[in-house]
């Protein structure tokens, strides 16, 4: 199981934001080390969304020692060592790399976030098992605590979310008969507008490549066929009127 731990948070609102992100991405256990007061009528519960109903009221206050002794721990920090001259903040994994490595970890894991202004101290980092850092601009890599937690938990979603809100088959490609029918209608359209004979083969090939990359759905192919058919018919009627 993957849990989230927040060490010495300064503002209740960030705790609420993290609880909401946990709810978004399928996590349930929130561990708090030296937390601020979380008033049910205050900003923590106001920022928590539906997490105010379960994650936030069930959050457990624990010691830092408890985290170290009972969990495989991942420290999240913006500042890392550039090389292996010091291992306090090195090596650091990106959230995506962390997701790949945690897939093989069977132990209970705690993703540990630090204080809003200074994060986790070096003494705390030395006691944690892994380092995770979000790639950001070198000019200003420090993210808001709630934002950082949301990014990390999003990248871990394949380990924590059984089913998301998106349908499994978002895009179903049209069958070959429908696609070929579209190409035939396009060829008829080229004929109707009297496109130069010597250029038609090349244009049809370009159109085939375009459709091949687009992978249109059945409805899209049918709609485009209808557009070309109507355009061809309008051209034909205009010629007959002349």
Automatic annotation (TrEMBL):
GO MF entries: RNA binding; RNA methyltransferase activity
Superkingdom of the source species: Archaea
Matching InterPro entries: Alpha/beta_knot_MTases (IPR029028), RNA_MeTrfase_TrmJ/LasT (IPR004384), SpoU_MeTrfase (IPR001537), tRNA_m1G_MTases_N (IPR029026)
GO cellular component term of the entry, any: cytosol
Keywords: Methyltransferase, S-adenosyl-L-methionine, Transferase
Pfam family, one: SpoU_methylase
Entry similarity comment: Belongs to the class IV-like SAM-binding methyltransferase superfamily. RNA methyltransferase TrmH family.
Protein name: RNA methyltransferase
UniProt organism field: Haloarcula salinisoli
């Amino acid at each position: 199981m993957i849990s989230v731990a927040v060490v010495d948070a300064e503002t209740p609102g960030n705790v609420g934001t993290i609880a909401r992100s946990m709810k978004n991405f399928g996590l349930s256990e929130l561990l708090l080390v030296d937390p601020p007061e979380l008033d049910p009528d205050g900003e923590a519960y106001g920022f928590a969304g539906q997490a105010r109903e379960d994650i936030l009221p069930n959050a457990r206050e624990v010691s830092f020692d408890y985290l170290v002794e009972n969990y495989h721990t991942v420290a999240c920090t913006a500042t890392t060592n550039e090389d292996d001259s010091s291992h306090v903040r090195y090596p650091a994994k990106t959230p995506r790399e962390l997701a790949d490595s945690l897939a093989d970890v069977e132990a209970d894991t705690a993703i540990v976030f630090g204080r809003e202004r200074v994060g986790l101290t070096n003494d705390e980092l030395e006691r944690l098992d892994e380092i995770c850092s979000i790639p950001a601009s070198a000019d200003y890599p420090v993210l808001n605590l709630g934002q950082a937690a949301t990014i990390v938990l999003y990248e871990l979603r394949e380990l924590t979310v059984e089913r998301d809100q998106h349908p499994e088959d978002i895009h179903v490609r049209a069958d070959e008969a429908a696609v070929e029918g579209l190409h035939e209608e396009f060829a008829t359209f080229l004929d109707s507008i009297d496109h130069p004979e010597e250029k038609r083969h090349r244009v049809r090939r370009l159109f085939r490549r375009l459709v091949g990359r687009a992978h249109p759905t059945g409805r899209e192919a049918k709609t485009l066929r209808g557009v070309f058919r109507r355009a061809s018919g309008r051209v034909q009627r205009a010629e007959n009127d002349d």
